Structures are given as C-alpha cells and as structure tokens.
Amino acid sequence: MICPRCNTELKRTERTDRTCSSCQRPFALEPKENVLRLHDVRVHRLAGRLGAEGRHTYTVPQLWYAAARGRIPAVDHDYEGCLPVATGMLTVAVLITGAATDFGSDAFVIALLIALALLLLAVISVVTGRRKARRWGRVEVPMQLHDFRGTELVRWQQVYGALPAGCVDETRVTPAPVREPALALLCPDRAVLACLAANGVQERHRMALAARLDEVPRDVPVLVLHDAGADGLALFGAARAALGERAQGVGLLPRSVMHRDRAKAVLLRTRPLRDAELAAQIQALRTSPARLTEAEVAWAADGWWSPVAAVPPAKLLAAVDRAAGRAAERAAEAADPARREARQLGFLTWPEAA
C-alpha cells in the first residue's frame, strides 16, 4: 500500500503497527486486516468522488456501499475452489498410500478405488452446493455496516480527528420540518434522507422528507424514492394505493441495475421466498405501478435488489432535483386552467398536430 502521508509504497513488513517506516507517521487502515481491503488512500479517493471534491455531503452508509463496490462476492463464492482442493487432498492421500504399499498391490487398488469414490462424492457435493447457493444463497456486503462504522471509521477518527472529508453521520442528521411544503419525498432509508437534508434539498424545493407513509403531508405531490427490489417496489405500490396519482415513483427500477457489471453496481440478494408467499410476491410485482417486464419480475422475485443509498450523491441529487422540477410543473399546470387548456390544445406544437 501507499503511505497517505509521504506517498511511499510500503510492503507489509514496512508498515507494522499502522505506522509508516519511512516517515514514522501513523495511518488508519490496514488493507490486510479488513475484508474490503480498505486503506487510507482509497478512502480519501472515495471521499473525493462521493463529495464531488467538496461540493456535496454524503453519509456513512453511502461511503460503506462505495467501499464495497466490486468487493461483494458472487452467490456461489463459498464453493469456488472447493473441488481443486478436494482433488489435491485425495491425490496426496493416494500418493502416501502408494508410498506405504506397492503400487500394484491389492491394498493400493482398494485405496485408489476409495479415493475415486471420495472424489466423486466431492464433485457431487460441490455441484449440488453451487446449485443450492445459486437458487437460495444470500449476497451481502462482506463487512457489516456496524463493523465498518465501529471499527474502521473509529480508527480513522483516531488518526485524522474526524470522519473523511464531506462525510456525516446520518444518525445525527434530522431533516427539519418544512412549513407549507410544496411537495414531499418518501424514502425509508435514513441515510438517503440525511444526504438530501444535508445537501439543501428541503430548502431548494420546499420539500418535506418522510421515512414512513403516515408522515407524508396532505395534499402535496409525493416523490417515492425506493430501492430496486421487491421491498422497494412494494413501497411504491403501497404509496400509490394510499395516495393515488399524488405518488410518483423516482426510485431505482430493476432494469437500471440488473444487467450492470458487479464491479460497478451494488447487487445484493435476500433469501428468495417459497411456495404461496413467492406466488403472491410475483403477482404483486406483475401488477406494480412501475410496470415491470417479466425479466424484472423474475429478478426481483429471486431475491435480488440494489439499494438507492448506493447511488452516488451527485446522481441521487440530480435525479431528485429533476423529479421535483417535474412535480412543480405538474402542480402549476393543475392550478392554472389556461396552462391545462394550452397543453390539451398542443400549445407551441400545433403545426405538427395539424
């Protein structure tokens, strides 16, 4: 790794006790000791990208997802390499048996047959295990958020005295109440709401931020910001059922992430439902107001999802600003009969309409 203080490239033996042997100054993170392979220079780079070099504020979970991108294992990761290891062990066992006996003796033949039988069982076990993992296995960030927050970021603060540049603790950010809001945004992810609040979205659009449906103010347009996955789409469906056309989906859809490279997108998986529960979920997905394709329904029903908190803050803020602008235009049009009539007549498009 490279020393964040003096830019010296350090071998493992040259950075014991998290201290650079060249400049004798401490650093925070040792990549050999965390599953995300985090080191100080990488975190500084992530902070620069997430914060757009000081223009945006981001939260701890957003940093966590960014650090995990490209390091989330495949669904059958636990079975990778099992078969070669088993084959190698059985080969060693056969060689030891052959060394202890004559290669042509009955004892050796029996040992060889036993080894082949064990190898066959190993092959069957690995193939079966991989199939089960692909059908039912979970995919998660290999480091839990509480470990990232309570271990890696604590060490960071001990060395640097604060969180990475631009990062805020979402547990300490409370969206302020908005008097006479022009619209609202519903999102159950506290990190996303904190990011929006910290970046001035409420003031910019007179926007109330709500984590639950019962917190949404009355009689204003509602932007529903949700994850890509069954739970996020269920939230949008519930909001549309309760609020009607006031609820507008601005969240992630499966089509926007399901075909992306795993190194560039945060694709996670819960354990898929079974039997009657799965059938009910598939039906709900098919009738979702998001109008999903069958491929999207199958992807979400199989347990896959992607968190909206993993969207870089710049893209998230831009998407919310665009959606808020469209909502404001619709509200102004609804309040102005002349504008409604102009749209119905094709105002400024009448030559083409004719």
Automatic annotation (TrEMBL):
Which branch of life, at top level? Bacteria
Keywords annotated in UniProt: Membrane, Transmembrane, Transmembrane helix
Query: Where, by residue number, does the polypeptide cross the bilayer?
Result: 81-101, 107-128
This protein is called what? C2H2-type domain-containing protein
